[in-house]
């Protein structure tokens, strides 16, 4: 869907799988899967660390809490780096190569030119074709996308407007929340690991509070990362080949689609509440005592 390969056009105009190995070894999928798995590892490590911090602050299960803090922070730091480099860097280069218009929208870039900067702060103004109140790092986008500070990065104005992502503002903010949180994760875990090696992590209560309260943010980062990928793909269902507006079914009406969506939302709500209940019960119970 993001970077179609291994396909052929049938006589009736439909898309068919023509080369199974090209499909299975799609470079986009390999990079995106590695990035996704690194992000999942970040999420797990933050949860483990948060549980260790909770037990340490509550003065319960201290041996287990110490283990959770040691493993969680070290793995969390390594995984946070992996999300940024090499997997995130490789993903950015894939977007720059195959989805230039998505890259421009993610950065709120309307004009083309060399030495393109990354916007740390700014608000995309689609109506007036500009980024309001920007604070940028000059040349960094050119470097990340194409390997040199002086590479030309095309803006949205270089592409037909009907190929622009449908919601540039939401795409821009989703991407920047994801990237911003990723930077915070590295800084947080780096400081925690430093305190760990100085043997001060267990006694630094403010850091334990930070680690305990940080566990929801990887979930948020994963969600906005998914939103970035899917909003960036629009208006294509299969990028460059099949538009989303043409993907509607001729045999399923809108009422049935809405009813199914409501059903899935209700199902996931119930499963989510059950998940939270079971996790809360296990945390409250704590680890089993060792038996001789």
Sheet-strand content, in percent, reads 5-15%
Question: Based on CA inertia axes, which overall geometry fits?
Answer: globular
Mean pLDDT: 92
Per DSSP, the total helix count is: 9
Strand order of the largest sheet: 1-2
Low-confidence stretches are none
User: What proportion of the residues is helical, as a percent range?
Assistant: 55-70%
State the distance separating the first and last CA atoms. Answer: 55 Å
- Helix/strand class: mainly alpha
Secondary structure: number of strands: 6
Q: Which sheet architecture does the biggest sheet show? A: 2 strands, antiparallel
- Give, in order, the helices and strands: EEHHHHEEHHHHEEH
Cα-atom radius of gyration:
23 Å
Your description of this structure?
The chain has helices at residues 20-24, 27-57, 62-98, 100-106, 140-146, 168-197, 205-213, 216-233, 254-285; strands at residues 7-9, 15-17, 118-125, 130-137, 236-238, 242-243. It is mainly α and 292 residues long. It has a two-stranded antiparallel ribbon with strand order 1-2. Strands 3-4 form a two-stranded antiparallel sheet. Strands 5-6 form a two-stranded antiparallel sheet. A hairpin with a 4-residue loop joins β3 and β4 (130-137). The longest helix has 37 residues, at 62-98. The model has no long low-confidence stretch (mean pLDDT 92).
Features:
two-stranded antiparallel sheet, 292 residues, two-stranded antiparallel ribbon, 60% helix, mainly alpha, 9 helices
Short description:
The protein has 292 residues and is mostly helical. It contains nine helices and six strands. It is globular and about 65 Å long.
């Amino acid at each position: 869907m993001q970077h179609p390969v291994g396909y052929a056009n049938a006589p009736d105009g439909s898309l068919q799988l023509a080369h199974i190995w090209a499909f299975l070894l799609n470079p986009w999928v390999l990079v995106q899967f590695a990035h996704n798995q690194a992000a999942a590892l970040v999420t797990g490590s933050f949860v483990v660390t948060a549980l260790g911090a909770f037990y340490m602050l509550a003065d319960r299960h201290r041996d287990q809490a110490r283990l959770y803090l040691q493993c969680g922070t070290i793995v969390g730091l390594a995984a946070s780096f992996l999300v940024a480099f090499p997997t995130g860097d490789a993903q950015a280069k894939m977007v720059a190569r195959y989805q230039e218009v998505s890259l421009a929208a993610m950065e709120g870039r309307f004009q083309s030119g060399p030495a393109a900067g990354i916007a740390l702060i700014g608000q995309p103004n689609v109506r007036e074709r500009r980024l309001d109140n920007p604070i940028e790092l000059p040349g960094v986008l050119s470097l990340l996308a194409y390997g040199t500070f002086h590479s030309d990065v095309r803006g949205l104005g270089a592409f037909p407007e009907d190929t622009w992502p449908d919601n540039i503002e939401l795409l821009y903010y989703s991407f920047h929340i994801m990237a911003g949180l990723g930077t915070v994760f590295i800084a947080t875990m780096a400081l925690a690991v430093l305190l760990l090696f100085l043997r001060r992590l267990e006694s630094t209560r403010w850091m334990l509070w930070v680690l305990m309260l940080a566990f929801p943010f990887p979930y948020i980062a994963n969600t906005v990362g998914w939103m970035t990928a899917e909003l960036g793909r629009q208006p294509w269902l299969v990028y460059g080949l099949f538009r989303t507006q043409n993907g509607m079914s001729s045999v399923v009406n809108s009422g049935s689609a809405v009813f199914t969506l409501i059903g899935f939302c209700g199902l996931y709500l119930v499963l989510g509440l059950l998940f939270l209940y079971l996790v809360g019960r296990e945390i409250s119970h704590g680890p089993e005592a060792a038996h001789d």
